[in-house]
Design brief:
six-stranded mixed barrel; alpha+beta
């Protein structure tokens, strides 16, 4: 079964292809179907599939020792996930009783396929969703504050309408309608901006290393997203109309109707509400800015951490040797040796090597081993390590330093004594106080382990070198023990070719591909990438977090600045007579400026205090996302506090300067 993309690219969309045979790994297969163009793999396009073939198990794979298969099933109508889990547990209990040797320590877990596809990114996405909620809260508070100020400006009009017999509900309904109109317009603009943002994110995703985010390329504003936006718009419209409505219902009709009068109680209540809004906005801004600052410092610390190898000018390609052509170790070994020689002799290539598992690729294998002359104590597990099978020249090509001993050489082949190289962490963990060089280990591998390999070297292996530690799984993970085996003694059909080039890595790809074709013209090559690409992908999710959380924090600070400006402008307009009287009694413009600035900065300080208290609980959510930075990093919080106080000063300065221009004569004439 072919994908629509492969059908178009390789076969020009030929409708007669169905029913015809094509060669895959040198064997004929009949095309029985083509998927529609709209098909997207559930795990997204980070891992693209071009064709599906029926599963066949080789003799060494058809064993109960092999447990690497994943079972997919569709639930019947009305069956819940919990019911399916219970039924599968019953089935598995029977398998444990029937096959205790292989199933005694195994369990089963039923999950929805989409949950499995996004589970690695769920904590980060929930964190970002929380940030979205905080920004929405600030926006609602801002609009509520502005509507309340507008209602205060219409105080006399509303009082006259109520005095003439208008009920409270029609006026509240008018305010609610205005609020909902604002919310719907905002929601419409949000959908438009959201679509633009998604498009931009997909376009810059590759450059930013964001393709590792599950289903990013499939994200779209579908009908569910539009309904959700509508619901949020209605909810926010109702939410930020509550404050003006309550103000109207609690208002005394007599005071606004007095000539030139203004309700003192209403003014006090409005001012308290506005001040509370500003404190809330500043506190939420602190949370978002502090979170962004911590993640940014963590991200920069991570980038400063060496992955254990030199990624510059390293080109990688992946090959899988077809079993029908390379069915034994000798043929695999010959292909690998000739390919490395041809690639190494290509112009622009400094050195070349191979490995079955690349660092930071998300793939590795674990094995146990025994140390000769040192029995594992009772109750303790045998020494274990991740392992990789590498060729001579691999460490030099990758820039992995040899701390002691030597690299593998061409003499470390099937006819020579078994050898191995340990990582620095493996040597320190299992040979503390002893010299590992010259010690012997024996692999403990069960039947059926990695059945695609023809064999493992099962005799004792002599440790000939200690290599520097490499981040095998994730950049920033703790250092783990590694055992390296020579590919000439343990050949694998899975080969990752690594090539150190003299110039730009990707520019050497045509010469490298030509060298591979000279060895085997039919050998397919895929995953042509640089090691820099792998590093970008390794930090893709962290980069994504910093980008979006930083954007949300910037929006929050902008909203807080607008909110503080609006509150101070409202305060100055409400207190213009008071300010005029003060100036008439001798207050200087500098005194008025200082008074208004102090009011704005005091609100900002209260917001910082409230945000600091909230951070005690909220920042713990970031603990698992940080690398080399504590959640109470003082530099981050000091920088955030200084930034927010600077923003508060600027937001208060314009209303403060306006206050200094109040005419005392106008104020006295009004009084």
């Amino acid at each position: 079964v072919l994908t629509h993309g492969l059908w178009q690219r390789r076969y020009g969309g030929d409708p007669a292809l169905v029913g015809r045979s094509i060669l895959i790994d040198g064997k004929p297969y009949t095309v029985i179907g083509i998927l529609p163009a709209r098909y997207d793999h559930v795990y997204g396009t980070a891992r693209e599939y071009d064709l599906w073939m029926p599963m066949t198990l080789a003799r060494n794979q058809a064993t109960r020792k092999v447990d690497s298969l994943i079972v997919y099933g569709r639930l019947r109508d009305g069956v819940t996930l919990g019911q399916a889990q219970a039924e599968m547990e019953g089935i598995f209990a029977g398998l444990r009783r029937e096959y205790p040797d292989t199933n005694a320590d195994m369990g089963i877990h039923v999950v929805r396929i989409l949950d499995d596809a996004v589970h690695t990114a769920r904590p980060q996405l929930l964190l970002l969703q929380g940030a979205v909620g905080l920004v929405l809260l600030i926006a609602c508070a801002n609009v509520a504050s502005l509507l309340l100020a507008k209602a205060a400006a219409r105080e006399k009009e509303i009082a006259i309408r109520r005095a003439m017999g208008a009920g409270a509900w029609p006026i509240v309904r008018q305010l609610l309608t205005e609020s909902l109109l604002l919310a719907f317009l905002g929601g419409f603009a949000g959908v438009w901006i959201g679509e633009l943002g998604l498009t931009a994110l997909r376009r810059v995703g590759k450059a930013a290393g964001l393709f590792q985010i599950p289903r990013l390329q499939l994200a779209s504003l579908d009908l569910r997203a539009l309904w959700f936006t509508l619901a949020v718009s209605v909810a926010t419209g109702v939410l930020f109309s509550i404050a003006p409505a309550i103000s109207i219902l609690r208002r005394n009709l007599s005071e606004p109707l007095k000539e030139g009068g203004r309700s003192a109680a209403t003014g006090i209540r409005a001012r308290r509400f506005h001040n509370t809004v500003v404190v809330l906005e500043v506190s939420v801004s602190l949370l978002l800015l502090a979170g962004t600052g911590l993640l940014l410092r963590s991200f920069l610390r991570l980038l400063d951490t060496s992955p254990g190898f030199r990624p510059d000018h390293v080109l990688t390609m992946q090959l899988w040797l077809p079993q029908n052509k390379y069915s034994d170790s000798a043929r695999m070994e010959q292909f690998g040796r000739e390919m490395q020689e041809q690639v190494g002799a290509s112009p622009g290539v400094a050195s070349a090597g191979t490995t079955d598992f690349l660092p930071l690729s998300g793939w590795a294998s674990l094995l146990n081993f025994a140390i000769e002359g040192h029995a594992t104590p009772a109750g303790h597990s045998a020494p274990y390590a991740d392992y990789a099978v590498v060729s001579p020249g691999y460490f030099r090509t990758m820039g992995i330093p040899m701390e002691r001993g030597r690299e593998f050489s061409a003499s470390d082949d099937a006819n020579g004594p078994g050898v191995a190289i340990l990582s620095q962490t493996a040597a320190e963990s299992y040979f503390a106080g002893r010299d590992p060089i010259g010690q012997r280990i024996t692999l403990q591998i069960s039947e059926g382990y990695q059945p695609w390999r023809p064999n493992f070297r099962m005799d004792a292996l002599t440790i000939v070198g200690i290599a520097g530690d490499v981040r095998e799984w994730q950049w920033g993970d703790p250092k783990i023990p590694m055992v390296y085996l020579p590919v000439l003694q343990d050949p694998s059909p899975l080969l990752n070719l690594v090539v150190r080039t003299r110039n730009d890595a990707l520019s050497a790809a045509p010469q490298v591909l030509a060298a591979i074709q000279r060895v085997d013209p039919e050998q397919p090559v895929f995953e042509i990438k640089t090691m820099d690409d792998y590093l970008d992908e390794a930090v893709g999710m962290r980069h994504f977090e910093v980008l979006l959380l930083g954007l949300f924090a910037a929006i929050a600070v902008g909203l807080a600045a607008v909110g503080l400006y609006g509150v101070m402008a409202f305060s100055v307009s409400q207190r213009s007579q008071e300010i005029g009287v003060r100036m008439a009694l001798g207050a200087q413009p500098a005194d008025v400026l200082r008074m208004v600035l102090n009011e704005g900065l005091s609100l900002a300080l209260w917001g910082l205090l409230a945000g600091g208290i909230a951070a005690v609980g909220v920042m713990r959510m970031l603990q698992g996302e940080l690398f080399g930075v504590q959640i109470w990093d003082p530099v981050t919080y000091v920088c955030v506090a200084v930034l927010l106080m600077a923003v508060a000063t600027l937001a208060s300065l314009i209303p403060a300067r306006r206050a200094t221009r109040v005419d005392p004569l106008e104020a006295l004439r009004y009084e």
